[in-house]
Amino acid sequence: MIDHYDWSGGREAMLRLGRPEAPLVLIAPALFEEANRTRALTLTVMRALADLGVASVLPDLPATGESLIDTSAARLADWESAYAALATQLSKTRRVHGAGIRGGALVDRSAALISRWHFAPVAGEALVRDMMRARQAAGREAGHAPDPADQSPDGPPIELAGNLVSRELLANLRAASPTSAGKVRTVRLTSDPMPSDHAVDGAPLWRRSEPGNDTILAAILAADLASWIAACGN
């Protein structure tokens, strides 16, 4: 079901799946182009969760998805504020757990959640570095030399994967890391050498050039997340 939520900066859309009385997980989606590449996987996980008796909510963060805010006006603080506001709104009727996918794990840090579950979380510095490398690679393919101004903290927004991104957002992301406070479970792919609580087989869809899906991986992730929520209490 398509719904909406309010935060201090306005109103944004969200998708809800699952029974109203079921345990609830609020998903912080992957960021930037990774959001497009993992959206089908995220939705498949949500459907699998519903089959397991867990409801889920996937919000559009400010300046993403169907948001009326321009992408160049996106701010990390606004993403955190909007996500936290939605968590508070949902917690009026149910206990709310969080699930952060990739860069989404940078968004849930200030939200009041029973627990956090992170899939392939990434530090902001690494996320920005990957995006800048992709921009430089695209420039070289087009015959352009790397622009030193891209690394400057000052100046106009930078175009990354077709979106204008502010220097302020990039600077704030570089300083951001997923939280380890409270109940946090980290799940990674077996090909990822970073520390985790659990590793699963699958392909890193966020690395592909086009959006994709993996129904087997989605089922594994949904089962792990449902078990984590049950263990943390509903």
Describe this structure as you would to a colleague.
- The protein is of the alpha/beta class.
- The relative contact order is 0.17.
- The two termini are 22 Å apart.
- The protein has helices at residues 33-51, 76-90, 124-141, 167-174, 215-232, and strands spanning 2-7, 10-17, 24-28, 55-59, 96-101, 116-119, 158-160, 163-165, 184-189, 198-200.
- The model has no long low-confidence stretch (mean pLDDT 91).
- It is built from 5 helices and 10 strands, in the order E-E-E-H-E-H-E-E-H-E-E-H-E-E-H.
- The strands form 2 sheets. The protein has an 8-stranded mixed sheet with strand order 1-2-4-3-5-6-9-10, sandwiched between helices. A two-stranded antiparallel ribbon has the order 7-8.
User: Helix segment count?
Assistant: 5
User: Secondary-structure element sequence?
Assistant: EEEHEHEEHEEHEEH
Assembly of the depicted chains: single chain
- Widest sheet: strand ordering: 1-2-4-3-5-6-9-10
Sheet having the most strands:
8 strands, mixed
What helical percentage do the residues reach?
A: 25-40%
Per DSSP E runs of 2 or more residues, the count of β-strands stands at 10
* Global structural class: alpha/beta
Concise summary:
The protein has helices at residues 33-51, 76-90, 124-141, 167-174, 215-232, and strands spanning 2-7, 10-17, 24-28, 55-59, 96-101, 116-119, 158-160, 163-165, 184-189, 198-200.
Secondary structure elements and pairings:
Blueprint: E1 2-7, E2 10-17, E3 24-28, H1 33-51, E4 55-59, H2 76-90, E5 96-101, E6 116-119, H3 124-141, E7 158-160, E8 163-165, H4 167-174, E9 184-189, E10 198-200, H5 215-232
Parallel strand pairs: 3-4, 3-5, 5-6, 6-9, 9-10
Antiparallel strand pairs: 1-2, 2-4, 7-8
